[in-house]
Amino acid sequence: MVLCFFLVELIKEQHHVLDSRLAPVSREITDNRARTREELESVYRKIVSYVLLRSGLGSPTDIKVIREATAALQSVFPQTELAAFLSLSKKEKEQQLKELTMIVTGIRLFNKDCGKGGEGIDDLPAILNEAIPAASHHIDIELHASQQLAYRYTALIEMMHQDKNADIELRQTVLKEALYNVRQHEAFLCIILSDVITCAQEVEMMQKEFAAEMEQVNNIVKSKTAVPTSLVYPIFIGLSNLWTSFQDEILVLSFLNNLTVSLQQFLETHALIFPEELIVPLLEGLVIKSDEERLLKNADDKVNPADFVKEEWFFPESTINFSQLLLQYHGFCAYTFAVKDGLLIPGNPSIGVLKHKERYYSFNSKEAAYAFAKCPDKYIKMVAEKAKECAELIQLLELHHQFEYLAPYSQVLHYILQ
């Protein structure tokens, strides 16, 4: 959620930066008082430059790009109309510059599609079609590595939980901190992957819209020497807006890729703290279970609602939109976390999800579910107390509502996005 909000802000900021960079060029046009032929020609060239800079379609210094953009502009805004343009108010001129940019952009994209132009225009849909799967694959690799570490740490902590000597306690504490860190890493990678998937869906939808718009304009201009501007201009503007959206998705994907790369250092740190020569001997003889294996183990041992009087339970086979239930603690078992001193074990919703005070809880076993249901507030308090010792758990377990007195969540978001 935080990342999605940030990506929206990222796009807005990028558009704001573009507006700021274009402001001097825009002022040179809108504040101009050209009278002579040479002065008017100079203003027209500046309009061409403005159109190219705002559209991002080719270099404004490439002569072929300039010629193509100039020809497209002349078809909708001949130089003879400059005097009328300059007589408009500043606000009207600024608005017309933006509209001209979109129309010219649409024309150039149409010409590119027809094979009659498109100089300097990158094939953004093709670039995205190649880049998105590559980004997903990279994240999957990082996610797998992160999860494997989590499974190892969990197995070791479970084993050490049986031994209470001081040395083991120290190791267990360090391992739990490592587990929290790697689970945070996993959670963040999942968010990034989700955003990449959303990006893919957006791009697929935009490509269909773009193809439909292009087909529509092709049908309108086919075998016609003159076409009403009222028919084609809106389509050209639509093509331009879609192309801007492609540019935005390129920006988003680049940001997500860079973010994934920047997170690699966390896994590298784990390799330094727990090198293979230290970890492998400790794992000898242990069964390392993945989250999926843990879910399958207890999937059929469900809670029996008849065993409870007041408690309300939800099950996948009888609850509409069951997967949309917002599970507390990022889906980890609250009871196990509370009684095993902060051990993170994923809950299994198919066992039964408990509703308590309008919040939903999942558990890693039927026994854990029954124990928690007897006194939910007790274990909820224990989780909160543990989170006070490890502040990173507030974010990982999504405990913001319990710590609003420290800082409002909106304020936390503000700091995160700085």
UniProtKB/TrEMBL annotation:
It is found in: Cytoplasm, Cytoskeleton, Cilium axoneme. Signal peptide: none annotated. GO terms for cellular component: axoneme; ciliary basal body. Keywords: Cell projection, Cilium, Cilium biogenesis/degradation, Cytoplasm, Cytoskeleton. Its main location: cytoplasm. GO terms for biological process: regulation of cilium beat frequency; regulation of flagellated sperm motility; sperm axoneme assembly. PANTHER family: CILIA- AND FLAGELLA-ASSOCIATED PROTEIN 206. Belongs to the CFAP206 family. Essential for sperm motility and is involved in the regulation of the beating frequency of motile cilia on the epithelial cells of the respiratory tract. Required for the establishment of radial spokes in sperm flagella. This is Cilia- and flagella-associated protein 206. The lineage of its organism: Eukaryota, Metazoa, Chordata, Craniata, Vertebrata. The gene is CFAP206.
